[in-house]
Amino acid sequence: MINFEEELKRFKPSAEVEDAEDSIYNQDLDDMADVVVSLLKDARQQTDYTRRFNRR
């Protein structure tokens, strides 16, 4: 039978996992709300530009 207490004492996390964890947590990632706001701003700017130059 597995002795979980003993296994936990011997556990050493993989260096790759720790490196990946640091990389993931240190990034400033946008959430979906930020993405939608950015898309809406871009769409509005494009619409304003199109209206301004297509009034002829």
Describe the structure.
The protein is mostly helical and 56 residues long. The protein has helices spanning 4-10, 15-25, 32-53. The longest helix has 22 residues, at 32-53. The radius of gyration is 25 Å and the shape is rod-shaped. The termini are far apart. The model has no long low-confidence stretch (mean pLDDT 85).
Give the % helix. Answer: over 70%
Structural class: mainly alpha
| Count of distinct strands | 0
Major β-sheet profile: none
Indicate the proportion of strand residues: under 5%
Order of helices and strands: HHH
Q: Which parts are unreliable, with pLDDT below 50 for 5 consecutive residues or more?
A: none
Contiguous helical run count = 3
Let me know the average pLDDT: 85
Give the C-alpha Rg. Answer: 25 Å
Q: Measure the end-to-end span.
A: 83 Å
Oligomer: single chain
Shape: rod-shaped
Quick overview of this protein structure:
The protein contains 3 helices and no strands. The protein is mainly alpha-helical.
Keyword list:
56 residues, mainly alpha, rod-shaped
Draw up the topology in text:
Elements: H1 4-10, H2 15-25, H3 32-53
